[in-house]
Specification:
Number of strands: 19
CATH class of the largest domain: Alpha Beta
Number of domains: 2
Distance between the termini: 59 Å
Shape: globular
Structural class: alpha/beta
CATH architecture of the largest domain: 3-Layer(aba) Sandwich
CATH topology of the largest domain: Alkaline Phosphatase, subunit A
CATH superfamily of the largest domain: Alkaline Phosphatase, subunit A
Strand content: 15-25%
Number of helices: 20
């Protein structure tokens, strides 16, 4: 009997083993090659509010913004998870998945706390301009402390992938392209050329020289800025000439058409404040695809494009302007042409593109007040003067505060040490004064933000934005719809600006389309810092080394 059971048991083991072997033999083999898109294109639209995707939707063509929404995946509730919401920090966060606390780009300009000296985000005195005799090329990404997703692509392919950054603004081209880029190009007002620096090369490629020789900025400006459609058909057509908009120097009023052919008078930098600046940028991007054979070399390449003119136009005219609407309608046509070119060159579905913004913009404060919405301007210059006087009277030392840039109090630590003062006591004095000002909601000691009696969302954004080496010691949070000024930032009443935590500044478009991308949308909370890790996951490469973002799984097929 025992022998019978033993035989049955052995037969059972044999059957199980045979079944396992059969499953092992029929299991699908692992892929031996890794598939990636031919090209990744990042498009950052400077100062694009999220609602611009829909505000002008009915007038968009089928091949631009609409195509990205209808074929791609949109993260409808994407926000910036730090302050200040400015261009340099935004472009850096998009491509690093990181925040100023880690990546070091604490603003467009910021104060180095150890020395009290002001630093421009991309400034580099060790390099020289290439392509012009101006000093506009003394720029590099060296101030950025972490890698970008473009760097990680280069590392993953042993530098076989090409990475190129292009923007009118130097910071818009340099920071996204990363430390290891083949090139970054930006616009030089003095010469009207696209330039670079010796950080990348010692001479412009012949194709860039040929592009510059076409003198396109002058060609575009001589056309004048006419509206695409009859003025009375625009959403913002009720009053083109109004007190909320800024005008060009030499113009009689801030109205369409803009006679750029008369107004520019050799100032080629004027193209920045017209839709033609975006057209010129995508012209160069197209030339880069063609001449650098991007996406056609058997390895994934990356083109980082930032469209800066939307920011210049927005600052000058504001949110509610025919000029702003026309700029986006023209940009839609330019994006349509660019995507059509990529379809023809690489094949539809063979490249991946994402579209986002570095920040948004507020309605003009005077416009809001005229419509019974609480708003106003905060005179930071007067506040700085009053604070320094308060401290000078109390401690007999002048200019203990350098500035209030980025809505932060930047102390003069050299003067504080010389006078043997207690910085903690000075902070308390400043906070007590600031909290009494009618425009200010909160004044927070940066180093105590984690325990501050403020909403969690604000606490998180303050902590993420605080870089101990490059940020001020007190964060000022103004009431909603209050700013240091509009337009050029001089306290003027026209145009708009940005820089705060509020939704109008921090709610951005985040749309992906093309190779490896699902079609759809999500209303789940996502962040600007999620873009880089999502692209990294799509490419099967490591996320940037300072990334705190998360992969948006719904985006990827």
């Amino acid at each position: 009997m025992k022998i019978k059971y033993l035989i049955l048991l052995l037969c059972g083991f044999a059957a199980v083993n045979a079944n396992a072997q059969t499953k092992k033999k029929t299991a699908p083999a692992m892929a031996t090659t890794l598939s990636r898109p031919k090209l990744v294109v990042g498009i950052v639209v400077d100062q694009m509010r999220w609602d611009y995707l829909y505000r002008f939707y009915d007038r968009y063509s089928s091949g631009g913004f609409k195509r990205m929404l209808n074929e791609g995946f949109s993260c409808e509730n994407a926000t910036i998870d730090y302050i200040p919401t400015v261009t340099a920090a935004g472009h850096t966060a998009i491509y690093t998945g990181s925040v100023p606390a880690i990546h070091g780009i604490a603003g467009n300009d910021y104060v180095i706390q150890a020395t009290g000296k002001s630093m421009y985000c991309a400034a580099d005195s060790t390099v020289q301009t290439v392509g012009s005799t101006s000093s506009a090329g003394q720029m590099s990404p060296r101030n950025m402390l972490v890698t970008t997703v473009t760097d990680e692509l280069r590392l993953a392919t042993n530098f076989r992938s090409k990475v190129i950054g292009i923007a009118l603004k130097d910071r818009g081209g340099i920071l996204p392209a990363g430390h290891t880029a083949n090139a970054a190009y930006w616009f030089d007002d003095k010469s009207g050329n696209w330039i670079t620096s010796t950080y990348y090369m010692t001479d412009l490629p012949q194709w860039v020289k040929d592009f510059n020789s076409k003198k396109l900025p002058e060609t575009y400006l001589k056309k004048d800025w006419n509206s695409l459609y009859p003025l009375n058909t625009y959403q913002q057509s009720t009053e083109d000439n109004n007190k909320y908009e800024g005008k060009f120097k030499g113009a009689d009023a801030p109205t369409m058409p803009v006679k750029t052919s008369v107004l520019y008078k050799g100032n080629l930098g004027m193209i920045r404040s017209t839709p033609y600046g975006n057209t010129l940028t995508l012209d160069l991007a197209t030339a880069a695809v063609n001449n650098e054979r991007l996406g056609a070399r058997g390895v994934t390449d990356f083109l980082a494009v930032s469209l800066s003119s939307t920011d210049y136009v927005g600052h000058q005219y504001g949110v509610n302007a025919i000029e702003t609407e026309d700029t986006y309608l023209r940009l839609d046509q330019d994006i349509t042409a660019f995507l059509t070119m990529l379809d023809a060159k690489l094949g539809k579905g063979n490249y991946t593109v994402f579209l986002t913004a570095d920040h948004g913009a507020a309605h003009n404060s005077t416009f809001l007040k005229d419509h019974n919405i609480p708003a106003g301007n905060w005179d930071d210059a007067a506040t700085l003067k009053n604070l320094n006087k308060l401290l000078a009277d109390k401690y007999n030392t002048d200019k203990l505060i350098i500035n209030l840039d980025n809505y932060q109090v930047n102390f003069n630590y050299a003067a504080i040490r010389k006078a043997k003062l207690d910085a903690e006591v000075l902070k308390d004095d400043c906070i007590k004064y600031l909290q009494k000002q009618p425009e200010i909601a909160f004044a927070i000691d940066m180093q105590k933000a984690a325990t501050a009696n403020i909403p969690d969302e604000l606490r998180m954004r303050i902590i993420n934005g605080y870089n101990i080496a490059n940020s001020g010691t007190i964060q000022i949070i103004l009431k909603p719809a209050y700013y240091t000024g509009h337009g050029s930032g001089d306290g003027g009443p026209t145009g708009t600006t940005h820089g705060t935590w509020n939704p109008y500044d921090a709610h951005i478009p985040m749309v992906f389309m093309g190779w490896g991308i699902n079609h759809g949308a999500t209303a789940n909370a996502t962040h600007m810092t999620d873009i880089a890790p999502t692209i990294a996951a799509l490419l099967h490469i490591q996320a940037p080394n300072g990334s705190i973002g998360h992969v948006v799984n719904e985006v990827i097929k």
